[in-house]
Amino acid sequence: MSHHAPIIHRSRKAPQEEEDAAKLKFGEDFEDEEFLFISEVALLLEKIPDSQKNNTVYKKTEELVNTFTRFHNDESVRELRKTLMRHKLHKYELAQLANLVCEEIDEAKSLIPSLAKRSDEEIRAMLDDISALKKYQS
Amino acid sequence: MFFIKKLHHTIQLHPAFFTQNFETYLTEKLYKDVEGTCTGRFGYVIAVLDTNETLEISQGKVIPSVGLAEFEVAYRAIVFKPFKGEVVDGVVSQVNKMGFFADVGPLQIFVSSHLIPQDLKFDPAKNPPCYANNSEDSYAVIEKGTHVRIKIVGTRFDATDIFAIGTIKDDFCGVVTGS
């Protein structure tokens, strides 16, 4: 006697485009929102009143952003965003460049694949801008 | 990735709170209801940025036959949602022979031993257990507390939680040195 696997019909809603950071697809819920640097989150969290900090999600996030923040004051973070804006980057690319602080062109291209369409000179200029600002803040 | 996202929340208010400063109560209730929660759609809600004065609170509607009033509150919050293909920095929280877990804020990412470079071998004898290589010139070790750079290769969202798996086999991923 043969067993047939039951056929399951799944009714799918309109096929949604798959979210993929490498292709700069973030879904309609997020593509129009503001993408934050880790350093910006760290600065924003400093302003949150203590009474709102009593949950694990908050505490774990605070730990993370304080560990990996690269730019430590309002001024340098604002300057960084302004400088990177000139390179006409996607919001995600801009945030990732600020978060990961790459040193080599290949590193940037590998970690943020969508940058591959830019020329090496352009990427070099972006990385130089970031490292200059990183040195300047003290 | 971290975002600032505008979100909505519905709050029902008991008639006992129909007072002059019911907004304060609504704000507190909002913080309590949404902060620290996670939904598959919007990710983790880390903190509401709006205060009592800046929240948009709709006109209350009394629900027939119950007496509670319902308010629609619009607020801005910092949210965190991981995406496939995103590269993140995290801290290793647990190591075992199947792989390791890393904390990226509220999110836990699992990196299977198949997605760890071959030369890093699991060493259960060490305390804490770790993945380490034997080469002397480029010694690398992954143990609890190590900072790692991970590429997210998959995410799974359910109603109240997010799961992610990552790889450190890609170029420029793995143990973060310096800084």
Automatic annotation (TrEMBL), chain A:
Residue span(s) of domain RNA polymerase Rpb4/RPC9 core: 28-137
Family: Belongs to the eukaryotic RPB4 RNA polymerase subunit family.
InterPro entries in the cross-refs: HRDC-like_sf, RNA_pol_Rpb4/RPC9_core, Rpb4-like, Rpb4/RPC9, Rpb4/RPC9_sf
Entry keyword annotation includes Nucleotide-binding: no
Gene Ontology process terms (BP): DNA-templated transcription initiation
Compositional bias annotation for Basic residues: 1-13
Origin: domain of life: Eukaryota
Listed name of the protein: RNA polymerase Rpb4/RPC9 core domain-containing protein
GO cellular component, one term: nucleus
Principal subcellular localization: nucleus
Keyword check for Nucleus: yes
Renumbered residue ranges of the record's region Disordered: 1-21
Molecular function terms from GO: nucleotide binding
Annotated localization: Nucleus
Keyword set, alphabetical order: Nucleus
Gene source species: Rhizophagus irregularis
UniProtKB/TrEMBL annotation, chain B:
PROSITE patterns tied to this protein: S1
Pfam families: S1 (PF00575), SHS2_Rpb7-N (PF03876)
Location of this chain's protein in the cell: Nucleus
One GO CC annotation: P-body
Transmembrane segments: none
Keyword Isomerase: no
Predominant location: nucleus
GO molecular function: single-stranded DNA binding; single-stranded RNA binding; translation initiation factor binding
Keyword Repeat belongs to the record: no
Domain of life: Eukaryota
S1 motif domain boundaries: 85-153
GO biological process: positive regulation of nuclear-transcribed mRNA poly(A) tail shortening; positive regulation of translational initiation; transcription initiation at RNA polymerase II promoter
Keywords tagged on the record: DNA-directed RNA polymerase, Nucleus, Transcription
PANTHER family listed in its UniProt record: DNA-DIRECTED RNA POLYMERASE II SUBUNIT RPB7, DNA-DIRECTED RNA POLYMERASE II, III
Protein family membership: Belongs to the eukaryotic RPB7/RPC8 RNA polymerase subunit family.
Designated name of the protein: S1 motif domain-containing protein
Organism of provenance: Rhizophagus irregularis
